């Protein structure tokens, strides 16, 4: 799938458990974000992709259960916040993704 293509690209740089300390926006005010991104992928021209691994039994099985199966209400906000913080640092984030490692299923979007 598309996430597999990101991580197997020989030109990409991969950083696992990459720390993040940056500013985000919550309810129209700046907040400090601190955490670790499961995987930060740097592609050509400095473009970044943020990938969050999910190893539980829950995963999306199709469009009908995308929000529930992928837990987008929980993890979508987290990945969007990471992407926003990186952009505020002047980085270009073009993809964020959840990768369900037990099934190989992935959900990705442009933050």
Question: Can you tell me about this structure?
Answer:
The protein is an alpha+beta fold and 111 residues long. The chain is globular and about 35 Å long. Strands 1-2-3-4-5 form a five-stranded mixed sheet. 25% of the residues lie in helices and 45% in strands. The mean pLDDT is 86. The two termini are 19 Å apart. It contains three helices and five strands. The longest helix is centred in the last third of the chain and has 17 residues, at 72-88.
Strand content: over 45%
> Helix tally?
3
Order of helices and strands: HEEEHHEE
Tell me the structural class: alpha+beta
Outline: globular
Distance between the termini: 19 Å
Strand line-up in the sheet with most strands: 1-2-3-4-5
Contiguous low-pLDDT stretches (5 residues minimum) are none
Radius of gyration: 14 Å
Supply the key terms.
single chain; 111 residues; alpha+beta; 5-stranded mixed sheet; 3 helices; 5 strands; 25% helix
Could you give a short description of this structure?
With 111 residues, this protein is of the alpha+beta class. The chain has helices at 2-8, 66-69, 72-88; strands at residues 13-26, 29-42, 47-54, 92-100, 105-109.
Give me the secondary-structure topology.
Blueprint: H1 2-8, E1 13-26, E2 29-42, E3 47-54, H2 66-69, H3 72-88, E4 92-100, E5 105-109
Parallel strand pairs: 3-4
Antiparallel strand pairs: 1-2, 2-3, 4-5
């Amino acid at each position: 799938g598309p996430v597999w293509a990101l991580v197997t690209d020989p030109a990409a740089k991969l950083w696992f458990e990459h720390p993040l300390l940056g500013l985000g926006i919550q309810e129209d005010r700046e907040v400090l974000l601190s955490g670790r991104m499961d995987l930060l992928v740097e592609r050509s021209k400095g473009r970044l992709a943020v990938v969050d691994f999910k190893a539980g039994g829950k995963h999306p099985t199709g469009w009908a259960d995308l929000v529930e199966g992928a837990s987008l209400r929980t993890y979508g906000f987290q990945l969007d916040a990471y992407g926003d913080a990186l952009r505020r640092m002047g980085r270009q984030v073009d993809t964020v993704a959840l990768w369900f490692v037990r099934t190989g299923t992935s959900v990705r979007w442009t933050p």
